[in-house]
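Chapter review. Work through the record for tRNA/tmRNA (uracil-C(5))-methyltransferase before attempting the end-of-chapter questions.
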Amino acid sequence: MSAPNYLPEQYDVQLAAKCERLKALLAPFAAPTLEVFDSPRSHYRQRAEFRLWRENGERHYAMFAPGDKHSPIFLDAFPIASRRINQLMPQLAAALRASEALAGRLFQVEFLTTLAGDALITLCYHRPLDEIWQSAAQALAAQLEVSLIGRSRGQRLVIGRDYVCEALQVGSRRYRYRQPEGSFSQPNADVCQKMLAWAVDALGQQEDDLLELYCGNGNFTVPLAGGVRRVLATEISKSATNAARANLLENAIDNVQLVRLSAEEVGQALSGVRVFRRLAQVNLSDYQFGTLLVDPPRAGLDSATCALAQDFKRILYISCNPETLVDNLRRLNETHQIRRSALFDQFPYTHHLECGVLLEKR
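Structure tokens for tRNA/tmRNA (uracil-C(5))-methyltransferase:
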């Protein structure tokens, strides 16, 4: 993780520049007025990772400028990280100074926290972890009131849980999420709440069904399920799929069928090209799909998935890379028109931005 250029006094200027950039990218597609959702100026990031750098006998939390892995930037605090992370940083540092069992050959520390106040710390080592480490780690987890994971080659020892519990407010309802260590979750939870609320409003109340690709831990699945008759949600990651199942159960969502399939495999199944045992309990002909929800990786949608999307009445496209979104829109614009567009400032003080568009069949 690179150190961001944290300049809160320039936040509004930076956000305005992102807005102009996204407007220019969407202009060829006659996009409507951009809806903009800003971020808290500080303490917005719920996860952070640091190298542990030893110098003059002292261990320091360290980050690096982009492209430079040899000149560490030492940190005693990290203002973009959650208040819980900033609370834990000095407490953990003191515990490491007092315990060679915990500190020996430790090279990286990862924090994962939530708006709900939960926290998990992962300690990464260049040595095997033994019973002495485990005893010290159990005491540390109890002292800090966190879950703790120790990682080394071939080892993953869990003290407490290997996930954190989040609670996000979307409209009048509060949803609970399990977010596993090592799996993707939105880093800026405040903006995530705004993004989910926008998606719920953009979808509206539909009488047909929703197909979701790249559902992850069910971040969008959970609140959007109430806007449609049924949902078929797909995800290839086993840990994310397990978390999504737990989140659906936790929130009493009973109109979602979750299947472990890639986007490519979903297209093959819907077109009848392949039959999958993982769909043995799913009758695709029972679904009346009207909306497709996609939240793809930075590479965007491949050609086959774009072709699949063109058959839907509505497409909700959440993107972490506006350039690949534009590449996909050149294809989707042949059959669909942008009805709503939004910018979600998930990553202040960087050039990165999250965006969303609602497209409807022409």
